[in-house]
Amino acid sequence: MTVEAILESLPDYAKDLRLNWQALVSATELSDAQKWGSFVAAAYGARSPRLLKAVEAEAATHVSPETITAAKGAAAIMGMNNIYYRFQHLSANEKYSTMPARLRMNIMRTHGADHVDFELWSLVVSAINGCGKCITSHEKTLLEKGATEEVILASVRIAAVVNAVAAALDAEE
């Protein structure tokens, strides 16, 4: 099933999601790699296999397979990190924040994508997973590396809409 077919299958009450998706696809704040990597990372983070498959197929017409793999790598590692660091953030025991994570995170150095893009995709998934500590960290790094607030917010819009489409699909199944 294509992204367009999925969007058309959404109930009328979710028309805004369809319209927002279409606007995001045509938005110009992000490069193609940033945009389509954000869509892929968000679909992965939203845990919707049907949506992920359709988004990957659409993304493949705009970006390289390496970009898609790196975006999925960002989503995978954030699936782990968001739980770990959200626990640190939410726990009243401050000692946890001083202890080493002891979790492998090699993908953060070996992803093969532009570092700003990878940070952006990590932020997308962190927003979906609601990890404040990771959101703060990735946003800070993005700003330090020259990304603008407009770029950051554009990617978060993608996260919001993709997550909402995934929820609507799940709710209607």
What is the N-to-C succession of helices and strands? HHHHHHHHH
What's the CATH C level? Answer: Mainly Alpha
What is the fourth-level CATH superfamily? AhpD-like
* Overall 3D form: globular
Structural class: mainly alpha
Radius of gyration: 16 Å
- The overall number of domains is 1
Q: Mean pLDDT, nearest integer? A: 95
Number of strand elements: 0
**How many H/I helices?**
9
What percentage of the residues does DSSP assign to strands (E)?
under 5%
Q: Report helical residue fraction.
A: over 70%
- CATH A-level architecture: Up-down Bundle
Largest sheet: none
- Could you give the distance between the termini? 15 Å
Summarize the topology.
Elements lengths: L2 H7 L5 H12 L5 H14 L3 H11 L5 H26 L16 H4 L4 H15 L2 H13 L4 H24 L1
Describe it for me?
- This protein is mainly alpha-helical and about 170 residues long.
- It has a single domain, classed as AhpD-like (Up-down Bundle), CATH 1.20.1290.10.
- Helices cover about 75% and strands about 0% of the residues.
- It has nine helices and no strands.
- The protein has helices at about 5-10, 15-25, 30-45, 50-60, 65-90, 105-110, 115-130, 130-145, 150-170.
- The longest helix has 26 residues, at about 65-90.
- The chain is globular.
- The two termini are about 15 Å apart.
- The relative contact order is 0.19.
